[in-house]
Design goal:
This protein is of the alpha+beta class. It is built from 16 helices and 13 strands. This is Transposase.
């Protein structure tokens, strides 16, 4: 006989446990075991008033934010709806079936207030990173760095060109991103900053364009990762240009060394980090091997001798040409350019190799930059097998950016200003570290009791 489902009957008593309805191999179980928010609550204690109505638990809001970034839920309104409906999300947030879910507007007030003023997201990221280090996922031998462009929450149409004058009005009445931008340019006092294309809603964003595509406003997220398991060691928001990205990498390396006493033996990067100044900083100041390709403009393609055909004698501060003659710094031009080495006109005129060296000039000269010794170190590293292996390992940081945009759906920011971009990048990096650590360690132990007493 064909059965028929009976109507819904309300029960007077029933027994229900969220613990029994969350699969044992669910990703949130592993993340829950690895997430310790005790220091986070202590960090925020001074930013809440001891009197008045009790506020929403900051740990609950952070758990909801981590949910959103772990599973690509970009809308705070939708995040609240998902936590209300999804049993696993309620379990992770320590909410019982009849506990209310915070309103979506609460996140904005706390993000721009208590969380940002207390550096809570930075503390959360570092707490998770310390757990990764304790589990042996960070080796500290090799680091990799790279940057990726993330679109800003700014329309292309609402922009002014560099030669246009902008009247921002009363700074006290302006929006938060505008106030932060005006305070920043007042501190740096750089005329070039106000001469670029600006967004009226997010003036700190950079006006950039991908090859073959239209221009847009964006920020760069800079990652510094450990090559052992691809754990993110630090993240920094910056403008979209090579100089700012190299400076962000220096900031991250210094911060990791100061905070965790970690300094790598080698740094892996692309050509953006192969500038002379960056190589000089790595080799001379930090004693780190630069496993990065360089911009080589000294070599020639017309068959004449390049700089590599000349041997530098550091002890005597001179070059030796293929004919055995010396190139020295001229005493007349030492003050003007102390890094220019010139050969004698008499030597060059009588040289049988002049047609292969410098056929259109009377004598040969070579400019040697102040960081040329560091460039030589980097040039020698590119011929080793370790460098070839580093080029293969560099894809680990690129895979993190692909995961950030395609899985976590962070291809466009929702918060504005450098502080907003930094908050989003920190939360996304925290979520990536938690996901990777949970999957690597495969923690699936059941939690006896996750709801607060």
């Amino acid at each position: 006989m064909m059965g028929q489902q009976s109507g819904i009957q309300e029960q007077l008593f029933f027994c229900f446990s969220l613990e029994n309805h969350v699969p044992k191999d669910h990703l949130l179980r592993g993340i829950h075991c690895l997430l310790d928010l005790g220091d986070f609550r202590q960090q925020l204690s001074g930013f809440y008033s001891p009197i008045g109505r009790p506020s929403i638990d900051p740990e609950l809001m952070v758990r909801m934010l981590i949910l959103g970034y772990c599973f690509g839920i970009r809308s705070e309104r939708r995040l609240c709806e998902e936590v209300h409906l999804n049993l696993a999300y309620r379990w992770f947030c320590r909410l019982d079936l009849d506990d209310p879910v915070p309103d979506h507007s609460t996140f904005s007030k706390n993000r721009h207030g208590r969380f940002r003023e207390s550096q809570a997201f930075r503390l959360l990221f570092e707490t998770v990173l310390q757990h990764c280090m304790a589990e042996g996922l960070v080796k500290g031998e090799g680091f990799a760095t790279d940057a990726s462009i993330i679109k800003a929450d700014a329309q292309r149409q609402r922009r002014v060109e560099g030669n246009d004058t902008v009247d921002w009005g009363d700074p006290e009445q302006a929006s938060r991103p505008v106030r932060e931008y005006l305070a920043a340019i007042e501190d740096i006092n750089d005329p070039k900053e106000t001469a670029r294309t600006l967004s009226l809603t997010d003036p700190a964003a950079s006006w950039t364009a991908a090859p073959g595509g239209p221009a847009f406003f964006a920020y760069s997220t800079n990652y510094l990762i450990d090559l052992e398991a691809g754990i993110i060691l630090d993240v920094e928001a910056s403008m979209v240009n090579k100089a700012a990205e190299a400076e962000a990498t220096q900031t991250m390396i210094d911060r990791v060394e100061e905070k965790f006493d970690l300094k790598p033996d080698r740094l892996v990067g692309d050509t953006n980090y192969g500038t002379a100044a960056m190589l000089g900083w790595l080799v001379d100041e930090k004693d780190i091997e630069p496993h990065v390709p360089m911009f080589e403009k000294s070599e020639r393609t017309d068959g004449t001798f390049g700089r590599a055909d000349f041997t530098f004698d550091a002890e005597n501060n001179r070059y030796t040409c293929p004919a055995g003659r010396f190139l020295k710094t001229a005493w007349r031009s030492k003050k003007k350019n102390p890094y220019r080495y010139r050969a004698s006109i008499l030597d060059c005129q009588a040289c049988p190799l002049k047609s292969q060296c410098y056929p259109n000039m009377d004598h040969r000269q070579i400019d040697r930059g102040p960081h040329e010794s560091a460039r030589e170190v980097a040039r020698a590293i590119t011929t080793t097998d370790a460098y070839k292996q580093s080029r293969k390992e560099r894809k680990k940081v690129e895979m993190l950016f692909a995961h950030l945009k395609r899985i976590l759906l962070l291809d466009k920011l929702r918060l504005r200003g450098f502080s907003g971009a930094q908050d989003e990048f920190l939360l996304a990096a925290t979520a990536q570290n938690l996901r990777r650590m949970a999957k690597r360690l495969a923690i699936t132990k059941p939690i006896a009791q996750v709801l607060p007493a």
